[in-house]
Amino acid sequence: MTIVGVLYIILAAMFVWSIIHGQKVIRTERTDAVFGNPIRTMGGWHWVICGVSSLMLFWLTFSWDAGKAFFPEAANELCQVAKLNRAVKPIRSAYPLDNRYLLSTRLLERDFKQIDLLYVRLSGTDFNSDDREELNDIINLMRDVLAAQADPKFISPDTEGRFKEIADRINRVADDLLDEGYPGPADPKLLEEALAQPGWGESSTEIP
Question: pTM above the 0.90 mark?
Fold first, then answer.
């Protein structure tokens, strides 16, 4: 255990002891007439220990020093998770991992709502009947264009084949991850390349 870990345990013990000691003092001594009495005020040193130890515990806990002392590998693991999460963001933007629809489907749904709103507002404008009819035809044409973008028959065979290939690769990776023996014994060459890569830390200095 590191020095910070030992110090953290000592501070925690001092914090608990100061509270217990203070409760005993309150039960066994009079607590009035403290202010203005120099002798009585000197007896509250245990509350000073309580305050200092609580501040130090608070600082060590939220400055990650306590975490490094008891879980030295946790910081690197959190950095790895953050980097993996960042790496899959392009996939999240294209595929409905966190949403119900694909990104393109959400955009089409948004555009259809805007067209519906435009159609509703058109009835309250001062256009004459001919202009309003022409604008209605334009709005209907916009609906048809948006609907055509989502029609599967307009997808080229190459694009459809690439989507099927990507889906097959994702399914194979999912099946491999379910296998407890995956990925098998480490390849010495790949292991050497992995150890030679730079640290996973967010800064230039790797978190110990």
Answer: no
